[in-house]
């Protein structure tokens, strides 16, 4: 069976890219080894964080050009999110009611000020609040919080709902969605890609396409290997916690500039607590396994302690579940979005901040594929920045 | 703190294993959620209460004897009123996260026995969440522990013979029983009799059931076959129950009530599901059994699970009753001593021989009981109208789930369905809806079950962060 484009990976990047490609009139098939949305896209905590992350501010000097680009892209993403429920014709429990990046120490405040200057210079809407202003805006926060940077666009969206909504729309637009299909081979043959996969029934299928999109998330490197490519995306295990439902009292996305924390309360009343605490990836014979990472109790307690320190009201809430997921990171912390020149027709969409920026990355990538150029440059994310790794590959 | 053998659950399996392992010199720690040992079979009254005629029937005497022996054991530490929140395998063995009176703490054990028992199978039907609709086992727990009759006029609906026992206990404790309904046709009695070789070695059990039946009939309590409670009605609390012929629902036809009975308590007794969350959270291998408890852990002849140093005994390996659990606990206790190197293999085999012999006959009885007392998937499915509540924690109806399935044809797996519908995402982590939810999935059902996560039972953030390692001394 021949398609204009084959997308491998049924997470947000894959489903959204398949959807936009189908919308542009391409014949598309999406191949997923398990079920739609069962990886990081459905396991993350659904934060929409537009403020520069902690890790990026620390390298602000080295990343000056990238940061400029990043903040500009953020504006595109914010506009995209504002219209996404209408675009997908699905309620997604989207809330963009503002986020606070907290500071507790002098050092934290210094970082916040520096961050605010960078962001404001790039035109991102952020306001620095002192202790009293923070208390006035968020009385549920501890008096230990001495300052906060407020961004009115931040919030959350339900990761349980977003990716299936893209998958449904892709299907409506004619895309074929094949689940329980493990891709075993991707091979360049003439000017086409030939892909083999094993279905759950054991049946082996084969497809050809002009375009191949690697949207395998944390496992993009493994899939890249099948095309004789080095795609530096490394899996990392992360921890998240959810409490029982309670009356709404946390009205913002809460992050911390000096500590690992993200906290929010969703429409149903559950409080979600995460922020980049690690979980141990399963491995065997020196290889990472795709199973669920193991909860690290020390990390779990530290995560909750961090949350409790800034929001004392959560103390009596019961934790329903601590869960882990696997996401992918790249050596320079920027995602891989775009074409691999070494392998014509091969595109990648993987690695980093995939929920907040996922829909926008997918739309821009589909523009790059169908028109040869994206409406907002994807240059900083081009996989070709690692082209030296593929000098002898492809 | 550490221990040689941690046992989760102080029912027949846990107590028997503790007794054997301690007798071979292992330091044993038993962790149990209830205030006093004994499990569900011997629900003990609170320490300060005096209950006359507590479980006087002979059927309870093997477990009562075990309980007496257990409480006299030295070398065993009992952590009652303590919940296991989760466990993971570490270099030293198994590390358990506990939540007890003193907050949360960690316990490291060389070995772990999971003997967590079972709970009543919940069933969804219109009105199943109305106050007054109870699990039959729940009604029995009130009577066993404190001789409290939690209602006035009882109706029992289900497929498990436990219904007869509990109805009899309600009568003896002073309650009124309107009727006992069995969903199976009357021919189920003939089927049981045809398997008399499996029944005959257990005259005590047969006698016990027969006496209960005789007392019910003497008091004029109707025992009806081929009927089921299809709808519970009432204004804020149960007032009446609609009865439908099982056949109608099994054929997928809408309920056509043949009768209505006024009552303030409805006991639901369709059998039991294994408490397999700890085994699942740890990552033990298991398989699905429709008739013997849902997801049950796989064990070898020594009750070893697929995980090193982790054993499973009792209902969590498949519903078999208290006698099976007790014998499996004995095997697990021997195995722990054997694997710890304190019991030679020949001695272990010798000591296991009478237990294995007893188990062969008990397993035959348990298999027959599981098979004959299962209501069948068609009946359970027939009871589940679109409005019936499937997930009580998240208030998800059967219709919500079927709509999610229809709208997302690519979702075929129970965990994907959980994400789409919220069914199973609440306080109980799906303990009470997984069985029913699976029945709505057309394909890819296989062995798929909800992934149990830490904490297996909810725990407050305050309790969690206060805990550190090494608090038990």
Written description of the protein model:
The complex is a heterodimer of chains A (394) and B (473). Chain A is an alpha+beta fold and 394 residues long. Chain A folds into two domains: 2-42 and 160-233 and 332-388, FAD/NAD(P)-binding domain, CATH 3.50.50; 95-153 and 234-329, D-Amino Acid Oxidase, Chain A, domain 2 (2-Layer Sandwich), CATH 3.30.9. In chain A, 29% of the residues lie in helices and 29% in strands. In chain A, strands 1, 2, 8, 9, 10, 11, 19 and 20 form an eight-stranded mixed β-sheet that branches. In chain A, strands 5-6-4-13-14-15-12-18 form an eight-stranded mixed β-sheet, with helices on both faces. The mean pLDDT of chain A is 94. With 473 residues, chain B is α/β, with parallel strands linked by helices. Helix content of chain B is 36%, strand content 23%. Chain B contains 16 helices and 22 strands. In chain B, the strands form six sheets. In chain B, strands 1, 2, 3, 4, 5, 6 and 19 form a seven-stranded mixed β-sheet that branches. In chain B, strands 8-15-9-10-11 form a five-stranded parallel β-sheet. In chain B, helix 4 (162-172) crosses helix 7 (203-218) and helix 10 (322-339) runs antiparallel to helix 11 (345-373). Chain B is globular, with a radius of gyration of 22 Å. Residues 469-473 of chain B have low confidence and may be disordered. Chains A and B meet through helix 8, helix 10 and strand 18 of A and helix 14, strand 22 and helix 16 of B. Strand 18 (318-329) of chain A pairs antiparallel with strand 22 (459-460) of chain B, so a sheet runs across the interface.
Quick recap:
Chain A is of the alpha+beta class and about 400 residues long. Chain A is built from eleven helices and 20 strands.
CATH class of the largest domain in chain A: Alpha Beta
Tell the overall outline of chain A: globular
Derived structural class of chain B: alpha/beta
- Taking Cα atoms only, what radius of gyration of chain B do you get, to the nearest Å? 22 Å
CATH superfamily of the largest domain in chain A: FAD/NAD(P)-binding domain
Tell me the structural class of chain A. Answer: alpha+beta
Q: Poorly predicted ranges of chain A (pLDDT <50, ≥5 residues)?
A: none
Morphology call of chain B:
globular
| Portion in beta strands of chain A | 25-35%
CATH architecture of the largest domain in chain A: 3-Layer(bba) Sandwich
> How would you characterize the largest beta sheet of chain A?
8 strands, mixed
Number of domains of chain A: 2
